[in-house]
Amino acid sequence: MPKDMSHSVSIFERRESAARSYCRGMPATFATAQGSEITDEAGKTWIDFLAGCSSLNYGHNDPDMKAALIEHISNDGLAHGLDLHTDTKAAFLEAFESHILEPRDMDHRVMFTGPTGANAVEAAMKIARKVTGRTNIIAFTNGFHGVTTGALSATGNGYHRGGAGTSLNGVTRMPFDNYFPGETNTAEFLEAMLKDQSGGVDAPAAILLETVQGEGGLNAASPEWVRHIAKLAKDNGALLIIDDIQAGCGRCGTFFSFEDMGVTPDIVTMAKSVSGFGLPMAMVLVKPDYDIFGPAEHNGTFRGNTHAFVTARVAIEKFWSNDAFQRELSEKAQIVHDALADLAAMVPDAHLKGRGLMQGVDVISGDLASEICARAYEKGLIIETSGSEDQVIKVLAPLTTPTDTLRKGLNILLDAANDVLTGTNKIAAE
Amino acid sequence: MPKDMSHSVSIFERRESAARSYCRGMPATFATAQGSEITDEAGKTWIDFLAGCSSLNYGHNDPDMKAALIEHISNDGLAHGLDLHTDTKAAFLEAFESHILEPRDMDHRVMFTGPTGANAVEAAMKIARKVTGRTNIIAFTNGFHGVTTGALSATGNGYHRGGAGTSLNGVTRMPFDNYFPGETNTAEFLEAMLKDQSGGVDAPAAILLETVQGEGGLNAASPEWVRHIAKLAKDNGALLIIDDIQAGCGRCGTFFSFEDMGVTPDIVTMAKSVSGFGLPMAMVLVKPDYDIFGPAEHNGTFRGNTHAFVTARVAIEKFWSNDAFQRELSEKAQIVHDALADLAAMVPDAHLKGRGLMQGVDVISGDLASEICARAYEKGLIIETSGSEDQVIKVLAPLTTPTDTLRKGLNILLDAANDVLTGTNKIAAE
Amino acid sequence: MPKDMSHSVSIFERRESAARSYCRGMPATFATAQGSEITDEAGKTWIDFLAGCSSLNYGHNDPDMKAALIEHISNDGLAHGLDLHTDTKAAFLEAFESHILEPRDMDHRVMFTGPTGANAVEAAMKIARKVTGRTNIIAFTNGFHGVTTGALSATGNGYHRGGAGTSLNGVTRMPFDNYFPGETNTAEFLEAMLKDQSGGVDAPAAILLETVQGEGGLNAASPEWVRHIAKLAKDNGALLIIDDIQAGCGRCGTFFSFEDMGVTPDIVTMAKSVSGFGLPMAMVLVKPDYDIFGPAEHNGTFRGNTHAFVTARVAIEKFWSNDAFQRELSEKAQIVHDALADLAAMVPDAHLKGRGLMQGVDVISGDLASEICARAYEKGLIIETSGSEDQVIKVLAPLTTPTDTLRKGLNILLDAANDVLTGTNKIAAE
Amino acid sequence: MPKDMSHSVSIFERRESAARSYCRGMPATFATAQGSEITDEAGKTWIDFLAGCSSLNYGHNDPDMKAALIEHISNDGLAHGLDLHTDTKAAFLEAFESHILEPRDMDHRVMFTGPTGANAVEAAMKIARKVTGRTNIIAFTNGFHGVTTGALSATGNGYHRGGAGTSLNGVTRMPFDNYFPGETNTAEFLEAMLKDQSGGVDAPAAILLETVQGEGGLNAASPEWVRHIAKLAKDNGALLIIDDIQAGCGRCGTFFSFEDMGVTPDIVTMAKSVSGFGLPMAMVLVKPDYDIFGPAEHNGTFRGNTHAFVTARVAIEKFWSNDAFQRELSEKAQIVHDALADLAAMVPDAHLKGRGLMQGVDVISGDLASEICARAYEKGLIIETSGSEDQVIKVLAPLTTPTDTLRKGLNILLDAANDVLTGTNKIAAE
After folding, report:
1. C-beta atoms of D169 and A173 within 8 A
2. Beta strand ranges found along D49-178 (DSSP E)
3. Tell me, what is one Gene Ontology molecular-function annotation carried by this entry (chains A, B, C, D) (predicted)?
4. What pLDDT does residue D362 have?
5. B120 CA to chain C: closest CA distance, Å?
6. Which chain A residues contact residue C167 at CB under 8 A?
7. What is the distance in angstroms between the Cα of D355 and the nearest Cα belonging to chain A?
8. Sign of the CA dihedral with B80 first, then B85, B91, and B92 last
9. In chain A, which residues have their Cβ closer than 8 Å to the Cβ of B85?
10. Are B45 and B383 in contact (CB under 8 A)?
């Protein structure tokens, strides 16, 4: 038996793969959570500004979803329904149609894919290729779309790409909005390359983008740029796929991240907060004309996670049946913005990134960002970095975080930054 | 608004993607389920011999798992934990170590991947490629490993492959055991191709197989063949990956499908019934030497589906802490075998397939198999086909199905077959 | 300046790439050649049983081709004509039509590709993919089709494949005729895989084969097998491509290697001896229905090697305007066969390979084969090995070799074998 | 027999593939050529400003090469030598070393590849991938590197790419120098993408470029840009490959197109005019450290086109043993420049492209350029277009063209342009 199989080391060291990650910087063993707070086995509580990477937009264990789920389970409601019709799926679809799709004039169909964001992206890429008969998909610098082979080919991150063990094909990489600040408009760049008969960029099946690149460093595309890209997609016979897995479900201040931009994507990928409760669920919204997969042509066992349908329905009905919640988001976004502006002012050249409740600060150095987050963790706040060098401190608080808790968390962040910048954290450690 | 957006058609017709599938042959709207039975909104109950495609091996809403899950939710246990340490994950790992891995002398590490089987397969393929620095993976005729791009390249099914919209690379296809009955041993065939310096089969990163091909028609590999393949993998510097997603978790009569075969795979992929309750969960077991992914190199949001850890732990403790359950499986397998032998006797050239509680009958014709399943559905039994032509009627009853229910279900199947073969079903329909 | 740039080493050591090969075993510097004999700078002469790897089927410096070429050059005939019309190209096409295509009822068009066999194979693969809209091409164990990326993907040799530096896609490898002597017919094997809807072999654009695998060890397909493969191609909507680069131009006893087999390939690739004089020239014969490339869609500078057209025309007119030459080939093949049978009798388990003037002996060991060839070189015969382990001694004498010279060369080979098998060569070396 | 097999249509219509191209716009059947003039069967003579697409830089049938070649053939010199040592290859290598490599301080080795430019490019790409263990190769908009699968993946032209019938992988496309006139420096763009850890551009094996894009529209890179690219290659561990197939052999005014730029490529590909006589020959120059192919790892039958070695040696000795020829080129380039400036002045927005004896005029419209070339053909001048829309009239006169002939040809071009712009050609046609 290998040495670390000895029971003197923790079960995680003994038996969990080295691929585990978040636990390395936040080594507590967590046990319970409510709203925006999470508590470990020993009873220590943290404010949670990570929110399951935006998969807990409505906080932990929302009481209404919780009650509905317990009732469902107690009544022997289905847990798993393959892609059979179930009453819970019907109820979710009806809520999603009434409160989300119809008010936004979207006639999209809902395809339930395997319950991971990557699976939704894979399905979206396959649809676009099948619809157009083309292979090439345009994706952008710093885009993140998952790590299964198809999705990974569209993901920019070199560390993840290196894990493929094979070459990643079928995607042309283009610079995202504002990649060269003050210089060439990157949509014009793409336009020129696509128009050039010898440009070497094959006719695209799709253009795939996030309006705010969550993992890529909170780069927020301007509405003008997104509209330009949408026009290029249309002019070139390509489908526009918006990956709203992280930026959707209210994270940017509206249900979809793109809804104030004047574009209607042909395909939208959703996951993370769509179940509302942190349960695995993913889906692809697709315009009826492009809903061309045959039965089970893209399939998977867990497409009918019925527990998730229950909580997802409650989430839609509770938060999106009128505009009250959306108005709150706007106020909270301002609170975050103001605090982050203070943080940015503390670090030379630092600047704000993102929009809505998906904001952060680029502190230029990945080491500095990590140190600040580590200090915040010590002080009772869970918060993470993003960006190509992990140089962006990213606030992903639950959208439902009470204003007081939000301010409290932001204050911990500012204190942590101050500690690091003044060296207090190191003195404390001695 | 397109015509079928009108509210006079069902919400599924209006809004669910055409990719939906099982619901087409079983159009009821299901609501509740207990054990081996499932009930629709109208109160009609079916015996379930599909069991979520083997993702409900312990039946629907097992009372112990149900109680534990409700307790967990009631106590505000985490729903979603990214890959943080949680008490529930620790408890699952400890149970899995004590009752599964240690008794079988397996020092594998557990990698929690995105909660779909395809994601586990993608991770396994990436690991093998990274470990060996090679690209080529050997997979077999009629293998099914999922439909994301990497997994799909290993899947044999032409209908699914056609959905890729691009060419599927990096896999060499070889004939499964007994592909040419009475002729060349296909392991010797593979051996010859691999040994031949001009054979054109690049040195493999892995050999990937299911010991029983669930989707491929219940083709069961012999222990000798699996051992031969394992030796070829070792001799050629390739990893042996056994995809136990459908055949594992007791389905073949032992926890792993391969455990009586004298082989220890380098990597095992698991999903479907690993949560025990139908909740999305997948994992990769990997020998410590090959556990080489860096932190989050293969990542995903839903790797910490804490609800699933709760039920998965109960499943392991309840069914696998001693050999009582395994002994039951053997008896039930005999019951299934006997009934299916009767069925096979009714159809010329029909023959039995599979092993354990993963048996079926190849009735030669896909149309006939479908007709029999449709008739069974009318009579109160949910059962499905598999195989390249959907010609195999497949019994995937929950492993926990009481003997009486099992016999009752099998009798319905026999009756349905009789109806179809005598034309009674058509007379009834007139 | 690196050490070996010093002028004390030969210009080849100093300046020619390490990729050079034949010169390593035959280090003489050759200067002149006539018929079946080749002479070095020092005046030593060898009988040439390599014949430019079958690119000198009519021997060196055939007097009629030589005269025509000198006249053409003297008259300022074009050397290079891109793909313009030239009088010499017209004359070649007319000769090829009259003496080759029409008598064999072939309505194929002639596409002049870049003047390498690999380029012809690349063009053929591209045509098949464009015609069918499919990607997959079936190629065989031990096939050799060239080393540019597309052709290399169809080549079986692992050493060459390893030089790609990238994975080689789009080809499914199948066992050649008689790959498992006495067991499964490999055409039936391919048939089963193609018919199986879950066999994992995508619908093929083409089946690509050599009737005798020159580099692969002189494996000769039976007419029955080739016909079966041709039927499979037709039944599966794939084009049949016969790569006749090495086996064509009379090498197997008829102009095309396949002409007595009862098949008409959709595409034939030709190179090597098509110019008759060793000049670079390659072409693709394609049925009119599949001649679908647009102007210059597959292009290249040297498609109009006018010198080659001159000699190629003479070759066709001189050797193929009646059947006298073909009758000679049959007699010579028997002479070769008899001598090789004697050689085979000298080595345990050795056996004859190939057919026509493309015969050899598998002496089981690559080392033994090399030693025999090296000894033959010392004794005045140039001859090479082939096969996956270089275990086949291959006789590729010019088809025009006079009977006396042929016997003389074969006797040197037998003597060389005897020397090696009795150790005489080593004694001599001491 | 298909209709056009009838002998009433020309042999080219009957039997040559539809892929033929140049002959469509210049339908004469050419027979002889001397220097810069080419004559058809009927005795009509044209000035040749196409020069075999720059493969006849020293004109047709140079008397010294012609004499040497006739002498070689008359003496039964080898025509074809595989990659054996031959006296003619040694003589070529010695001349190339003395007059080309040593004076330019280049210690490169010479690899003789299959005699097409595409084959040299394939070999270069394979070397870079093998040396670095990476797959990705950076190539540029409007680059042209050949149409075999590997080379085609690096070629920008969409028409050629469309002929692949499969997706073309392993290449990242970047904008060439000055792609966005007056905006972002494209080398800085590439630098940013390569430096970005999440930029999605995998670490490159090589950067591959032409200093003047012959097929792509005579886009000439500035020395500063090429130096910047060379530095990026070095900084990123990638090889710099300069494809000098069209721009080399004196075409840009020096033997190599890059020799005044202050860069030393790791690999140079050469073909077209390297034989000096239009005979097929190609080679790769590679720094000794990267000369890592094993014997025959990249092979091919026609690597030893001995006739080409004869003429190539004469070309080197005659034109490059001192600087007289190079000085002439400079004068002729000025003559071409002045005439093309006149042409550009005739067309609104037209502008000059290229450098050395590789200049042209972008007349904005492909139709206009074609019409002018067609009119020039009528008037006795062969000249072609290039560029993504065929909008660039390209002068590729033999470098040896006498000044009078050069002026005469340029005058025909100006007359032709005038005819077209004034409509005279159409009046004439009525």
Report:
1. no
2. 85-86, 109-112, 137-140, 171-174
3. diaminobutyrate-2-oxoglutarate transaminase activity
4. 98
5. 20
6. 166-167
7. 21
8. positive
9. 12, 23, 27-30
10. no
The dihedral through the CA atoms of D310, D312, D313, D317 has a sign that is: positive
Q: Closest partner residue to B300 among A76, A93, A147, by Cβ?
A: A147
Whether B370 contacts B390, CB under 8 Å: yes
Structure tokens at B312: 């998965």
- Chain-chain contact of B142 with C184 (C-beta, under 8 angstroms): no
Across chain A, what does the average pLDDT equal? 95
Find chains touching chain C: ≥3 CB pairs under 8 Å.
A, B, D
Q: Which of B8, B30, B148 to mutate to test the interface with A (most CBs of A within 10 A)?
A: B148
Q: Are A200 and D139 inside 8 Å of each other by CB?
A: yes
Measured CA to CA, the distance from residue D394 to residue D416 in angstroms comes to 14
Nearest CB partner across the interface for A388, out of D155, D175, D197: D197
Listed by start position, the domains of chain C span 5-62+325-429, 78-319
Cβ–Cβ gap B141/C197 under 8 Å: no
Q: Are strands B239-243 and A392-395 parallel, antiparallel or unpaired?
A: unpaired
CB D253 within 8 A of CB D336: no
Per-residue pLDDT of chain B (430 residues; tens, 9 = 90+): 444 555 567 999 999 999 999 999 999 999 999 999 999 999 999 999 999 999 999 999 999 999 999 999 999 999 998 999 999 999 999 999 999 999 999 999 999 999 999 999 999 999 999 999 999 999 999 999 999 999 999 999 999 999 999 989 999 999 999 999 887 899 999 999 999 999 999 999 999 999 999 999 999 999 999 999 999 999 999 999 999 999 999 999 999 999 999 999 999 999 999 999 999 999 999 999 999 999 999 999 999 899 999 999 999 999 999 999 999 999 999 999 999 999 999 999 999 999 999 999 999 999 999 999 999 999 999 999 999 999 999 999 999 999 999 999 999 999 999 999 999 877 755 5
Which of C84, C130, C302 is the closest to D280 by Cβ? C302
Which residues are paired to D269 by β-bridges?
A: D243, D284
Write out pLDDT tens, residues A392-406. Answer: 999 999 999 999 999
Cβ contacts of residue B73 below 8 Å, gap of 6+? A61, A66, A69, A70, A73, B79, B307
CATH class of the structural domain A78-319: alpha beta
Query: What's the predicted TM-score (pTM) here?
Result: 0.96
Q: What pLDDT, on a 0 to 100 scale, did the predictor assign at position A184? A: 82
Kindly state the average pLDDT of the residues A261-279: 98
CA-to-CA separations, B157 to A383, B164, C168, D327, in angstroms, rounded: 44, 12, 22, 67
The verdict on a CB contact (< 8 Å) between D300 and C41 is no
The answer to whether residue A1 scores a pLDDT higher than 50 is no
Inter-chain CB proximity B295 and A11 less than 8 Å? no
CATH number of C5-62+325-429: 3.90.1150.10
Q: Residue C428's Cα: distance from chain center in Å?
A: 35
Nearest to C156 among B161, B180, B198 (CB): B198
**What six digits make up the tokens of D233?**
């290659």
Task: Judge: A193–D175 Cβ closer than 8 Å, yes or no.
Answer: yes
**At residue D429, does pLDDT exceed 80?**
no
Distance CA A266, CA A204 (A): 14
Within 8 A of C167 by CB-CB distance, chain B residues are 135-136, 169-170, 202
